[in-house]
Amino acid sequence: xxxxxxxxxxxxxxxxxxxxxxxxxxxxxxxxxxxxxxxxxxxxxxxxxxxxxxxxxxxxxxxxxxxxxxxxxxxxxxxxxxxxxxxxxxxxxxxxxxxxxxxxxxxxxxxxxxxxxxxxxxxxxxxxxxxxxxxxxxxxxxxxxxxxxxxxxxxxxxxxxxxxxxxxxxxxxxxxxxxxxxxxxxxxxxxxxxxxxxxxxxxxxxxxxxxxxxxxxxxxxxxxxxxxxxxxxxxxxxxxxxxxxxxxxxxxxxxxxxxxxxxxxxxxxxxxxxxxxxxxxxxxxxxxxxxxxxxxxxxxxxxxxxxxxxxxxxxxxxxxxxxxxxxxxxxxxxxxxxxxxxxxxxxxxxxxxxxxxxxxxxxxxxxxxxxxxxxxxxxxxxxxxxxxxxxxxxxxxxxxxxxxxxxxxxxxxxxxxxxxxxxxxxxxxxxxxxxxxxxxxxxxxxxxxxxx
Length: 452
Fold this sequence. Notes:
Blueprint: E1 10-13, H1 17-28, E2 33-37, E3 60-63, H2 70-80, H3 84-91, E4 93-94, E5 99-102, H4 104-117, E6 121-125, E7 136-139, H5 147-157, E8 162-168, E9 171-173, E10 183-184, H6 194-197, E11 200-205, H7 207-219, H8 240-245, E12 273-279, E13 286-289, H9 298-305, E14 316-318, E15 321-327, H10 330-333, E16 339-340, E17 343-348, H11 358-376, H12 389-400, H13 428-450
Parallel strand pairs: 1-2, 1-7, 2-6, 7-17
Antiparallel strand pairs: 3-5, 4-5, 8-15, 9-13, 9-14, 10-11, 11-12, 12-13, 16-17
């Protein structure tokens, strides 16, 4: 890329969750934004549309509990910062127990519409294949950064990007699920409404069902890795066959755990394992199989998944898949303003920085957008303190993590400075609310300070 860009305009590469949020935050701060997106002109194997903020793996932003859960706290902070992603997620949310799930197509359409309608945001289609030498840029190309740009980033950093594998769970047509076997219930009946309390479809397994399923899963034909790929999976998104290889009961104590559920078809008999499906669209016509990311070949998936009671005649809208996911060694390469140390006119945001998850990605976009806007306006905006969810994440990826063993990370209370308390270690019931109360106060003060 050779043309010179005005330093008064912020350029953002990638209109995923992070890039979309960054564009919104900067534009709302009064900075003109040019948003570069290669889709749909050039697609990826995982994306299906050219929409902004398309969710490709799941439709869930996970827990929305802002008092006892670090992810829910991150939701709270993004709402407090007038985040576009949270606003549109709330507008298009679906029943999901205590989680925040969305109608993914309606959500992406709404984000795209808001960005395109903003008077300070200009869309430029096409692939960016090299890192610009001047101007102010945010690179938010996500885990599916194109080969050309990935090579340019590797050349600029002097290091090869790290890689792991991210997996996609299958989606089932709801009307093909046998509800004489399955039933609707969220674990422990979580949720304030009946829809929330019945947001999941549950398929019970006896011990014999489970053992046969594990045998078939282990024997199923898997997709081979391409040359140069390694099986460095991120533990938060393990394929089910990899979990099964770690022990026959791993799935039964993971995504197939039978706790907090009562089968109304047979209330006296406790299932040995349970497969859960979560609603994937507002119509309730599609459900994704929770935690069932896989690298099995498509034919094997059909055979194995139809062994699940309730899914014997299931029709699949999408089968599972797995793909390479690249990210920077951020503790070595980025400063705490998310700038590339060797090229400080370039900021990075989203999953390419080594955060994991939709919400975490969008939060890093929010922060990068605000920091870049402040810089263009002649101000320096430090990150929120590490006692906040946003601050804990950026601190982790830009210095808190060990560079030699750096791996993608979800937000969690283990990233926060410990709570000092008298009388010994606090239990979760009191410790987590203490973390969130402290974080909310600190993040609120950061927002006030950020206004200049």
